[in-house]
Structures are given as C-alpha cells and as structure tokens.
Amino acid sequence: MISDTPLLDPAGLTRLVDGLVEHGWCVAEGFIDPALCRALQHELTDLAARDALRDAGIGRGEAHELRRDIRGDAIHWLNRESLPQRQYLSAMNSLQHALNIELYLGLFEFEAHFAHYPPGSFYQKHVDSFRGRANRVVSTVLYLNSDWPDDGGGEMAIFDPSEPGHELTRIRPEAGTFVCFLSETVPHEVLPTRLPRASIAGWFRRNASLNGLVDPAS
Ligand SMILES: O=C(O)CCC(=O)C(=O)O
Ligand SMILES: [Fe+2]
C-alpha cells in the first residue's frame, strides 16, 4: 500500500538542496518511500513485458541517433498514467519549489523517463546539458533496485567538474537512493551493469528558446 503522503521529508529536502549548492551534486539514500519505489519498479517491469520501452538514443530533435556504444538503456517517458508516477512527479514538484526558493533557478518543467539497463550495458561519461543551451538545469536519478549486491556493477560515477578525469564518488543503484546534480557541469557515467538495472532519470528545465523556437521537451 502506498501512503497518500510519502513525498519528501523537509529535513531531507533541505540537506539535498544544501548539498547541491555546496558541491553541485548530492546523494540521498532512502529519499523516496520504499513502497513507492517498489510500485515504480513493478511498473517498469510491466512496461518491459508489454514491449513499451524504446532503445534510448543521444542528441535531441534531428540530431537524435541510436549509439549502443555510448548508451545501452531502454526508456519510457513518464506521462502521469499511473498513481505511482503521479506520486513521484508530485515529490519532484516539491523539490522544484525548494530549488526555486533556495536557488532562484526559475525551473518551470520536469521531464523524466524510466530506464532499464540490461546486463552488460552502460552509459559513457557525459554531461546532460550543453553549455549555452540552458535547457536542462538540474538532473535527478532515482534507483529502483532492491538489495543490489556489491558485485552488481552499474554504479554511477561522478567526476569533478573542474577536473573531469578525477572521479569523486561511485553510487550504488540501490532502491530509494536519489541523486541530483547540475546538468551543465557535472560529468557522470553509468558503469557496466552485471544485473538488470532500473531507474528513473529526470531533469528540471528552464525555458530555452533558440532563435525564437521553443526547445521541445523531448
Ligand atoms: O542511471 C544513472 O545512474 C544515470 C543516467 C544518466 O546519466 C542519464 O540518463 O543521463
Ligand atoms: Fe546523464
């Protein structure tokens, strides 16, 4: 049973926002209610069984291409179709308010997708937003894998923005662990996973129009 008010504990929210301000990234274990994580994980399993996941590519719009040598996940965009999705999006809405109040970021939209990384897959080191196109401002990842073993692989490595060769930390994709970081500056990588790996990757965006054209959400 998912409670009506799992959402976010105010102290946890403050710690997360403070970490983001201080370091540009932050990790919070147990950030999202375990029952909600399980429900989201079941939904992803069900989407996979119904063939509703699509291989993820890189680049936006016309530049979009499939590059399995760069990223190997299959995705499904959240669209509010289920209660667990709506609850997660509501939690992200609270985070968006906190970020706007504390950091004056002017975030106006959150987009997110389920991601399934099959065994052997990875996502090479990258940043989530190109400088000069300030569309994605803050990146988020929630992991959905309960009892992830030490030798499961699939950690996310975070690198120093001012020294991208220097790894700062590795995060195990354990259910409930939530990571957020500045999209334009923090290089990160998904190391090859040994087991099927489930997550939700999301981005807070600012309105970015280029030559009068509004940048599409996806
Ligand atoms: O799943 C992760 O740990 C990170 C995924 C990621 O970097 C992305 O989708 O841009
Ligand atoms: Fe990323």
From TrEMBL:
SMART domains: P4Hc. InterPro entries: HIF_prolyl_hydroxylases, Oxoglu/Fe-dep_dioxygenase_dom, Pro_4_hyd_alph, Pro_4_hyd_alph_FE2OG_OXY. Keywords: Dioxygenase, Iron, Metal-binding, Oxidoreductase, Vitamin C. Residues 103-206 form the Fe2OG dioxygenase domain. It holds the Pfam family 2OG-FeII_Oxy_3. Its cofactor is L-ascorbate. GO terms for molecular function: ferrous iron binding; L-ascorbic acid binding; peptidyl-proline dioxygenase activity. The keyword Oxidoreductase applies. PROSITE patterns: FE2OG_OXY (PS51471). GO terms for biological process: cellular response to hypoxia. PANTHER family: EGL NINE HOMOLOG-RELATED (PTHR12907), HIF PROLYL HYDROXYLASE, ISOFORM C (PTHR12907:SF26). This is SM-20-related protein. It comes from Onishia taeanensis. The lineage of its organism: Bacteria, Pseudomonadati, Pseudomonadota, Gammaproteobacteria, Oceanospirillales.
